[in-house]
Amino acid sequence: MPTTPPPTPPRQESLIEYPSLFPIKVMGTKVDGLVHAITQIAHQFDPTFDASTIELRESKGGNYLGVTITVTATSREQLDELYRTLSTHPMVKVVL
Fold first, then answer.
1. Of 5, 56, 70, 78, which sits with the fewest C-beta atoms within 10 Å of its C-beta?
2. Is residue 75 part of a domain?
3. Contact 25, 68 (CB under 8 A)
């Protein structure tokens, strides 16, 4: 008598409930215009982005700047494209 495999649970698309506030840490060389560039990109993907929520952390040596932005995530596609856009910006070194 053949046995049937147990049913596979439905695939979970995301652990994030949309919409939700989603922090993204961006690191780049500390240069004029870095924060402005990141802010402009955040606004492209989240028109309600509040720049007053930006958190800045300078590296020990003062050469790099960590910029934490909190966007309203509305979909996985939005977040993927936001990460891609930030990652490919010439001033940005790392996006977490």
1. 5
2. yes
3. yes
Left (φ > 0), alpha (ψ -120 to 50) or beta: where does 26 sit?
Answer: beta
Query: What confidence score (pLDDT) does residue 36 get?
Result: 98
Specify the CATH number for the domain of residue 68. Answer: 3.30.70.260
Cα 77 to Cα 23: distance, rounded to the nearest angstrom = 16
Distance CA 55, CA 69 (A): 7
Cis omega (within 30 of 0) on the bond before 7?
no
Is residue 5 in some structural domain? no
pTM score over 0.85:
no
pLDDT by 10-residue block (mean), the chain, 96 residues: 57 77 97 98 98 97 97 97 98 97
